[in-house]
Structure formats: C-alpha cells, structure tokens
Design a protein that fits this description.
Elements (H helix, E strand, L loop, with lengths): L12 H7 L10 H18 L3 H16 L9 H16 L5 E4 L1 H8 L4 H16 L5 E7 L3 E6 L5 H15 L4 E5 L8 H9 L9 E9 L2 E8 L14 E5 L6 H11 L4 E4 L9 E6 L3 E6 L1 E4 L16 E2 L5 H16 L2 H13 L7 H5 L3 E3 L2 E6 L2 E6 L3 E9 L2 E4 L5 E8 L2 E9 L4 E5 L3
Parallel strand pairs: 3-4, 4-7, 7-8, 8-12
Antiparallel strand pairs: 1-10, 2-3, 5-6, 5-11, 9-10, 13-14, 14-15, 15-16, 16-17, 17-18, 18-19, 19-20
Helix pairs in contact: 2-3, 3-4, 7-8, 8-9, 10-11
C-alpha cells in the first residue's frame, strides 16, 4: 500500500492554513459556497469509514447552508474553518478537517506524472529531515533507563535510517520510556517498526488490524511484529509510554496496543481519542477534506478508543509523567536486581515533586562554608568552590540539595538551634563529609 496515502497524522486546520499558498480572494458567491458544500458531501459519502453516518453528516452540512449559517463566511478560509467545526460537532471525530490549498489540489491531480510524484516525495523527505523525522530526544536517564521522545510518526520509507539509529541507541537500556505526550500521530508503519523491537521476532504477533477505503474498494489489512530489525530486541525489559491529552491517533495506537498486549505501562493523562486512519481528498479546485477512511482494531478484543481516548495505568499530570515513569522503572528493576535498589533509593528525592522554597528560606542558606560558598542570585542558589567553579543548586526537600550536572553526590543542610551550621556532602556510596559554615 502506498504509505503516502496512509496517514493517521492529525494536522490542525490552522496549521494547514498557515502553510498553504495564498489564494486570490475573488468575491465568494453563494453559488460557490453551495457548490463547495455539495462537493464536500459527495467526497464525504465516498470516503468516510461509516457510510450511514456520512449521509447524515452531509445532510447536516446542507441544512447549515440552507439556514444561512455560512452567510457570514466571506472567504474560503473562513468557510473551511466553519465546515471543520460542523464536521467535528456532527461526528465527534477529531480527525476531520477542511482546508484551502489549491496548490495541493493541483498536485493531487498531477499524481499520474512520475516526475511530479518524485519531486513531491523529495520535498516530503526534506521537510521531515528538518524535523529529524520526529525523533526529538534520545538519552539515558539515571539507572540506565533509555528515553525516546517522538513528536510524530514519520513515513518509515523516508525515516528508516533515523529510526534504526534511535532503535540502536536505546537497545542497551535496562528499561525504556517512550514519550508520546505531544505526539500527534503519523504513519502506523513507523509505529509497527518501533513496537516490533519490544517483541520476539520468531513468534507471530499481530499489532494492528484494520480496514479502510481505497479508491472505492474496501481493503482489509493487519500489521504484525517484523521478523528482522536493524537493532537488538528489548524483549523482557520494562517498557513505559508517556501519554497526554495531545497524544493523538498513531501515538494513541502505539500506547493502546502495547497496553492491550501487556507489554507496556502507560503513565500520564487520558489521550485525545482519535482512533481512525485518515486521508486527504480534493474538494473542487481549492479545498481539501481530511477524512477518516477506516477503522483500526486492537489485536486482543478488536476494540478501539475512538472518542474516548486511552486511559493510562498511572494517571498523573502529563508534566509529571516522566519523573513518575522513571521512578516506576527503577522500582521494577530493583525487584529482580537487588543492586538496582540502591539506584532507586538514591534517585527517589530527585524524582519526587520539587519543593518551592520562599526567598527568605533560600536566603538563610547563602553564606561561606569551608572551601566553598553559596550565593543567592536572581532567586537561585549558586554553589562556588575554588573561586572559579560554579554550579546551580536545587532544593530536593528534607534539606537536601541537588548540584547541577552532578550525579554521584549531593548536599544536606545541617541546622542547629534553627540556624544553618554546615553543609554535609553525601556521596552515592553513603560516605559523608562536613563543611562548617564560616559566617
């Protein structure tokens, strides 16, 4: 199947409109509006996954037109915005969007020209490359936890090398965290590639089962764990997926399927609830319709989450999800490896909610200590030693202070009679050293 046609990427109408070429805004007549609504209804009925609902929705748009609800839409962009709102309200399907892009419509009509298709493909590749094909962050968290931040699922035909590099980067982690909190979807084939790393390759395992409309015919298809990968598999390792209210479509399917198969723990907020695959179709010479063309089903009970979203196993604010998942991963690893218990205990204060100390409390910590000092600058604590090295300090709670960029020791404030009397350095191995306050 042509991956270019298969996309589950939600792109907000405003984003589409921000990138399209300007249209000469000749007077937009009532007859032209009616033609757009009629053509939109026909496109909807020919492509929407639910044929019976398509007829009802198309009739709803015509009633809005007849009632004069679009009379105030003086230009094409305004009409597209209002049609998008009415489509979503009538269907409760966030995948719908109407936009104005005559250049794209012309390109669509020219797809029979191989040279034009190749040029468009290269333009897509260059655009994806500027976004690193969605791979926004790769790093290792304390405790050897691999972390992958993905903003969208790019076409793997274009993004395979980037995906392979990311998969190889995380392959040595003792656990892995996939960040889908701000991922708005994309190509399900990329989700298939990444998810395949979490399963054995010598055992058949379905990931997604779906059907869709393709040029007037119904296609049924399943996607399975791939037997060959560019990186080592992560079978047996704990997996966590971070979710948020802006996780959409393919990002939701990635989380939902892994949860259904018992392969990942979800941490964060309920997702947006856009389960249907979509395609773009031309409407006349200026407009396009982004329309859900099929249904995806999970491999366990053939369900989905359309309009409901995916519920995380650990509901927390999306902003706190990474720290919570990190704690969960460390605790899980400690169950089977006692040596990991020390990692979990040491990192617990850093991964807990950070206290916000008032300025007066911070001020009491500023002063000179043996061979070092603490200054309060711009509301932040700065630690200086040997008069040349300076790093920021961050309160961890319980009089503990983390040092910027330092992983193997931290400070504890020593008090006597309510006054700060010393800094205690606490090393990761449990050894300590006291630096008396000098002022």
């Amino acid at each position: 199947m042509n991956n270019k046609r298969w996309t589950v990427l939600l792109t907000a109408t405003t984003a589409w409109l921000a990138t399209v070429a300007a249209t000469d805004e000749a007077p937009f007549t009532a007859a032209e509006k009616r033609a757009v609504v009629e053509q939109l209804g026909q496109t909807l009925e020919a492509n929407y996954v639910f044929a019976d609902k398509a007829r009802t929705i198309a009739a709803t748009l015509r009633r809005h037109l007849d009632a004069g609800d679009y009379d105030a839409a003086t230009d094409r962009h305004k009409l597209a915005s209002e049609l998008t709102d009415d489509l979503i309200e009538a269907s409760n399907d966030l995948h719908f969007a109407v936009g104005v892009d005559p250049a794209w419509v012309a390109d669509y009509a020219a797809r029979q020209d191989p040279a034009r298709v190749a040029a468009l493909r290269e333009s897509d590749r260059q655009g994806e490359a500027r976004q690193n094909f969605g791979f926004a962050g790769l790093r290792y968290l304390d405790g050897n936890i691999a972390y992958l931040d993905l903003t969208h699922f790019a076409d793997p035909e274009l993004a395979y090398d980037a995906a392979a590099a990311a998969m190889r980067f995380i392959e040595n982690g003792d656990a892995v965290i996939y960040d889908m909190r701000y991922n708005n979807g994309g190509h399900l084939e990329m989700a298939q590639l990444l998810a395949s790393q979490l399963f054995r390759g010598d055992k058949d395992q379905e990931l997604f089962d779906y059907d869709y409309n393709l040029d007037g015919r119904r296609v049924e298809r399943g996607q399975w764990v791939l037997p060959a990968l560019p990186a080592k598999r992560l079978t047996g390792k704990p997996v966590y997926v971070l979710t948020g209210s802006t996780s959409f479509s393919a990002a939701e399917w990635f989380a939902y399927t892994l949860k259904k198969l018992g392969r990942a723990t979800l941490v964060g907020e309920r997702t947006a609830g856009g389960a249907h695959p979509v395609d773009r179709k031309p409407v006349g010479t200026d407009f396009f319709l982004q329309v859900p063309i099929g249904q995806i089903r999970d491999p366990v009970d053939r369900g989905d989450f359309e309009g409901q979203g995916v519920t995380p196993d650990h509901p927390v604010a999306s902003a706190d999800a990474l720290a919570v998942a990190h704690r969960l991963a460390l605790a899980e690893l400690a169950k089977t490896d006692p040596a990991k218990r020390a990692d979990a205990d040491w990192l617990a204060p850093e991964l807990a909610a950070r206290p916000q100390l008032p300025a007066a409390a911070l001020k009491t910590l500023a002063g000179r200590y043996e061979g070092r000092r603490i200054d309060l600058v711009g509301g932040k604590l700065l630690y200086t030693w040997r008069e040349r090295f300076r790093l920021a300090l961050e309160p961890l709670g319980g009089d503990l202070l983390a040092i910027e960029g330092v992983r193997d020791f931290r400070f504890r404030i020593v008090r006597k009679g309510g006054k700060v009397t010393a800094l205690e350095r606490i090393d990761r191995d449990g050894t300590t050293q006291i630096y008396a306050r000098l002022d």
